[in-house]
Structures are given as structure tokens and as C-alpha cells.
Amino acid sequence: MSHKVTVVTPSFNHGRYLLRTIRSVLDQQFDGELEFLVRDGGSRDETVSILQSFGERIDWTSAPDGGQGDAVNQGLSRAAGDIIGWLNSDDVYYPGAIAEVCAAFDADPAADLVYGDANHIDEQDQVIEPYPVEDWNLDRFLYTCYLCQPAVFFRKSVVERFGGLDPSFYYAMDYEYWVRLALKGAKFRRVPGTLAGSRFYPTNKTLRGRGGAHAEYNRLMRRHLGRVPDRWLANYAHAVLDGRGIPRTAVPRFALMASALSLAASLRWNHRISRELALTVAGWTSGALRAWYRGAFRR
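^ that's the sequence the OP posted. Answer follows.
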């Protein structure tokens, strides 16, 4: 079956990576038609000249926008393809990715969204590590996000049924979208093969703001589940301390601060502290104090 596939790329000052992103899309070989929409937020680097060099092969705009989520939504609103991929301007598709995705949708007409494996790549496109992708299980997905955003494709009907991204999320816009779709009954299907490379580098926004990202994870869990699971509260506390440069080996300081932050986060998002969380942080605190006490007296 022949498909029209739309790839939406939000962009802002990623000119140093954009050419590789574009080529990874335009070099895809599959039985169908490609529509490539780039929505740039008014970059001041070489982005515009790169986009101009491809002529009519890319439908692009460059103007101030409301951020990444807004740029993706602009593309989704214009997308004419029956299958849509969202590829950030610093990520890449691997050869054969779109053909694999089209075949998966043909094999399962009920599938709303398909996803494959992916790699974390560095600034030179070298593989750092495989992304920890897993088979689909909703309960597990609410425990950890194991979908790699550039390796996810969905039918246009998904946007028509469920809308686009929530641009109020800066870090977690993709995870919020996948959770929203899953809880509203969208069918997810994992496909074989490694579809994409997700760039991982020091100025990557998620690495820069892990505490902010985990705050958004907590907000989306509160919105969609009515409460934030204890695991996410603890993850938030650890991310905040990592961001402050407090090493986990700083006993008992790290454990005491992680305990306090977890409890405060529970009050902030859940307005209560569960018995399970109270027991968990009590274990952290007592264990850290015992370790510190033994170490102090050995000296």
C-alpha cells in the first residue's frame, strides 16, 4: 500500500546539525510520497541558508513562535500525509526507517502509533548507547518512558482524534502526548529495527534541566492519573540534587536532602504523603545515618 508520509521538524538555531537531519529525511527510500515540513523559530545561525538550498523539496517557514511544541503543532496542522513523523532538528532517521514504519502500519491496520528502537548519538553521529526501548505495556510505560521520540510515527487520524501537543510542556511534551494517547485508547505497536538517532550532548535541553523535566513529569502524572506515583516523586528529588551537583556519595547529606525533597514534592503535587513514601524515605535516612555513623567512628 502506498502512503504519503509527513515529517515535521521544529527548528531553532540547530544549523550545525540541521543538514544531517534533512539528508536523513530526504534520503529515505519507500513506496510513497514524502512531505517535509520544517517550522523554524527565527534562527539566527545558518539554518535559513541551509533550508533555502533545498528549494521546493522542503516546505519551511522561519519566524518567531511559541517554542518547540508550538512549532510541531504548526506542522501537524498542515500535514497532508496519512502517516506523520516528528523529527527534531538535531536528530536523524536511519536508512529504511520510513519503509519499515509503512510496512508496520500495513500489517496492523488497527495500530494508531508505531515505534522502533533508537540510539543515543553524539555530536559526530557516533552511537553512545542504545535507547532503552521496551515492548508496549501501559503500566510499565507509566513507570518509565521507554519510547524514543524520533523513532515514533503515528497516523494523521491520531491528531484528528486527540489533538496535538500541549505547548505548556517544555521538556515532557512528547511523554505527555504518548501518555494522553495511551490513556484515551490509542493502540501502540513496536516494530523491529533501529529507526533513529537521538542526539545526546551537554547543551541538550533535557540534560541542562533535569529537575525541570522531572517537575513536568510530575505535572503530567497528576493531570492524567490524578496523583503522582512515589517513584516519580523520588526521581524528581534525585534529579534536583544531581542538578545542584550534590554527589550521591555525600552521606548522609544526599539521603537527607532527597528524603526532604521527596516529601515536599508529594505535598506539592499530591497534597498528602503516602505511607509507602514515608517508609521509603525513613529507610533512606536511617540507612544513611547508620553508614555515616560507622564511617565516622572507624576514623
